[in-house]
Amino acid sequence: LSLFTFNCVSPAFSAVEDTLNYLPKEPAGTVTIATSFEAWEYFLKRDPLNKWKEWKSSQTLFKESQKKGMDFEKDVLTLIGSHLTVALYNDPDSKTTDMPPFVATLHLKDKSKILDLLQKLSKDEPDLKVTMGQHKGIPTIGFSMPEQDLAQSPHAAIADNTLILAKNQSLLYKAIEAGKEGNGLRSHADFNSVFQTYQNSQVWGYLQPDALAAFTRNFMGMSEKDIKDFSFLLGMDMDQAYGFGMTVNHKGVFLKTNSKWKDASQLKDEQKAYLEKLKKSPEKSLESLYHFIPMRSLVVMTMQGIQNLGDMVNLMAPSAEER
Length: 323
Prior knowledge:
alpha+beta; 13 helices; globular
C-alpha cells in the first residue's frame, strides 16, 4: 500500500459534483446522501442522536476500530466529506451474485490519510491480497481473497477529492473513464434535470425504469411475469426517468418526486390516451377542504385527480383478473 500515490488534480467542481463525475452512464438507479455534519446538524444536536456514542452499535464500532489500531472518530469520520453516492448497474462482467454490481463515490475531506486507513483496515486480514494497478493514469487497488478472481474482486481508486469503490475491476475502470473523459452520468440530460431539482436535499435519487427492470431481471433472476407483479415497476412503465428527494430541517421532513414520461413514439395507444387525459384534467382548489381539517392533525393527505384512478388501474392491470 505504501506504493500507492495520488493523481492530484485541482478540483474544478463542487463537492457533490465531484462524487457524480465518476459515475458511468446508464445506471439502474442512484442514491446520493449528504454526509457532512452541517447537513444534519439540527438533528445531530438533539436527543437521541446527540447520544450516538452511547449506543450499543456505536460501542461495538469503536471497539472493532480500536482492535485495528484506529480511533473511529479521528481516523475515519474526519476523512469523510460532504456526499456519498451509490449507483447500481447491469454489468455483464459481473460473474458473482453475492452483491449487486455497484459504483460508490465518496467525497473526501482529507485524502492524504486514506493510505494509512487502508493499511490499518487490512492489518488483521492475512489472507487479503492487495494488488496495485493503474488505469488512465490513476492508481488503483484490488482487494481479493485467495479463492477470488482479481478481476471480480472489489477495487478502489482516488481521483480528485473522490474515493471510488466498485464491485469489480471493470466497473472501476468505467468509473475512471467517465470522470476522465467527461462522458459519464453527469452528461445525461435526464439525470442533470433530477440533479438540478434535488441537489440541495439531504437524500435524493435517480431511477431509469427500463434499466431498473432489467437489473431486477438480470441480477435477481426474476422473470418478466414476476417483475410485472410489482406494481411499482409496472406503474413506471411510461416513465423515462424518475427522481426523488428528501429534505429534512427544523420544519419537518419534505418528500418530493417527479417523473419524465417517455416520448410518444415509445408509448402504447392506451398509455398516450391516459396521459392526454391527465394533461386536460382541471386542477381544483383544495382550499375548500381545509375548513374540515382539525388544527392539530398529525398527518394530512390531500389528493387531486381521483377521477383518473380507474383509468390508472386499467392501464396497470389490463385484464379483469389482474384488476
